[in-house]
Design a protein that fits this description.
This protein is of the alpha+beta class. The protein has 15 helices and 22 strands. The strands form 5 sheets. It has an 8-stranded mixed β-sheet with strand order 1-9-10-11-2-12-20-13, with helices on both faces.
Length: 533
């Protein structure tokens, strides 16, 4: 068993997958998970990256979890709960320990909460992640422990998705002793989950996890779990078919056939709960503050061609922020058609008939909601040239892209979102509500506004939209919430703060030697349940 603080940060590259970061172990063997990007931090409170959560979800537990492959919530560190109005009570598990042998108690969650959002707490991490406010901070008035294994939480207002927020990766529980001690959560880890950190190799994009002997639940069923970066879709696919990786994600449309033709692996898929889009940064670009310009660009970009040709049909066209899998999706809307003449007319009405130019920032590495980012950006550039708009492409490594766009330096950006809690609020509020007041007489805010929600990459601040979202948060009846979100979807369609591109399937490549793996659109991946022959 590893003691807290003992994980090794490797400064030199491993010579092979089975070298420095392990190989075929005894008993359960090794599970090698190939992905497009490495995790730059292991601190779940210092990131907005799904790549980080793939790792931290193996090490840490939340109070609540999601059923593998489902959107239903289930027990984790909490075994029972109730929510009535603003009062939430959770009964906690009494048999959970961190991997250093320390018992988990209610005080660990309280310290975790305070580290994330309480500016008066000595160990508050600051505004490292935009997740802090919308996961916990905006909703909790107080948290108190009733003994070691009961939590009483009082909300500021009724908030329908709160229990689902407790299942988000950003709400996992950290140990109080480590929070208040000299522990670096960026490079080390100490959780109650099925795995513990063994080696972190930033130079070679690899992370090695081993079983947590103190884990309270079932599994894990392997001796080692390796997360391995393979930036290119083709390289990752080849490694799968040649037996160097057991599971790969972000499988590109051009590589699906290669896996399907392999006798050693198969494609596994499931309905995604995600959206891919292009954001207009209204804080930076004056032209984007006019909805006629935004609609013009939406008409000019042929999203049908992007989905069918660039993505090879592993996604469908988007027409609103909320994906079809969630109850807040408005079925009465349809994607913007490709109409260059209408686009040109709208530009002329807005005073931009002669066009203008902007920089489109994108990530280089494939993502599930955008499996071909450079090809997508090039298609957009070609389409917009037809209406006199010149686009320059600014492509960046994913971690750099996240930092750059979170600071509002982009004119426009290709972006996307995987659900955190399978609730419409996670799209409407998190991605398009500024979480600050809307300025009088305008529907955008300056990026530097104190408290601004930087996950809203558009700086859009439409008061009518904000009112609908806030009302939906405080409405308990599902059908009433759905009606509010349908109205919000119509408004977001008409005002076009994004170019809605796609809703993508969840696609994985899996070796035939892998058992009990399930594609999950939310939470996970639940790799502690997997075994390898």
């Amino acid at each position: 068993m590893k003691s807290a603080g003992s994980a090794t940060v490797v400064a030199t590259a491993a010579s092979s997958v089975s070298g420095c970061l392990g190989g075929n172990g005894s008993g359960g063997g090794t599970l090698r998970y190939g992905r497009s990007s490495h995790s730059e931090t292991l601190d779940p409170q210092d990131t907005t990256s799904g790549e980080v959560s793939k790792v931290t979800n193996q090490i840490y537990d939340g109070l609540i979890d999601f059923e593998p492959g489902e959107a239903a919530i289930t027990q984790s560190l909490a075994v029972d709960w109730s929510m009535e109005g603003t009062d939430v009570t959770l009964e906690l598990r009494e048999d959970a320990q961190f991997d250093d042998g320390t018992d988990f108690t209610a005080d660990d969650f309280i310290a975790t909460y305070r580290r994330f959002v309480d500016e008066e707490y000595e160990y508050h991490v600051g505004d490292l992640s935009s997740y802090g406010p919308f996961t916990l901070g905006n909703w909790i008035d107080s948290v108190e422990a009733d003994g070691d294994y009961t939590l009483n939480i009082t909300l500021t207002d009724p908030y329908a998705p709160f229990l689902r927020n407790l299942a988000m990766f950003a709400a996992v529980v950290l140990p109080k002793d480590a929070i208040e001690g000299d522990f670096d959560f960026a490079t080390d880890a100490n959780g109650t989950g099925p795995f513990q950190l063994d080696k972190l190799d930033n130079s070679d994009g690899r992370i090695k996890l081993t079983p947590n002997d103190n884990y309270w639940g079932d599994g894990p069923n392997v001796d080692q779990l390796l997360f391995i970066e393979r930036g290119q879709n083709s390289t990752r696919t080849q490694a799968l078919t040649e037996g160097e990786l057991e599971i790969i994600d972000n499988l590109g449309p051009n590589n699906i056939g290669q896996v399907e033709d392999s006798d050693a692996a198969e494609v596994q898929s499931g309905e995604g709960i995600n959206v891919g889009y292009m954001s207009f940064n209204q804080s930076r670009m004056e032209a984007f503050r006019d909805p006629r310009v935004r609609r013009a660009i939406s008409y000019a970009i042929n999203t049908e061609a992007i989905v069918s040709q660039v993505y090879s049909g592993i996604a469908e066209q988007a027409d609103q922020p909320c994906p079809p899998a969630l109850f807040g999706h408005n079925d009465d809307l349809s994607p913007y058609p490709h109409d260059t003449e209408k686009a040109q007319s709208l530009l002329e009405d807005a005073g931009y008939g002669d066009g203008f130019s902007f920089k489109l920032t994108t990530f280089q590495n494939a993502r599930g909601y955008n499996p071909a980012p450079m090809s997508t950006a090039e298609s957009i550039r070609t389409d917009l040239r037809e209406i006199g708009i010149e686009v320059s492409i600014d492509d960046r490594q994913f971690s750099d892209y996240l930092t750059y766009t979170s600071e509002g330096k982009h004119d426009a950006s290709l972006a996307g979102w995987y659900t955190d809690n399978a609730d419409p609020d996670n799209f409407y509020y998190v991605l398009l509500h500024p979480q600050v007041e809307s300025p009088e007489g305008q529907d955008w805010v300056d990026w530097d506004t104190e408290g601004y929600n930087t996950s809203n990459r558009t700086a859009w601040a439409n008061q009518k939209f904000m009112d609908l979202i806030e009302e939906a948060q405080q409405t308990s009846a599902k059908d009433e919430r759905a009606d509010l979100y349908h109205d919000a979807a119509q408004l977001a369609y008409d005002e076009a703060p994004w170019v809605y591109i796609d809703y993508a399937d969840e696609i994985r490549g899996v070796r035939n030697t892998v058992n009990n793996y399930q594609v999950s659109a939310i939470g996970g991946p639940h790799l502690h349940l997997v075994d390898v022959e």
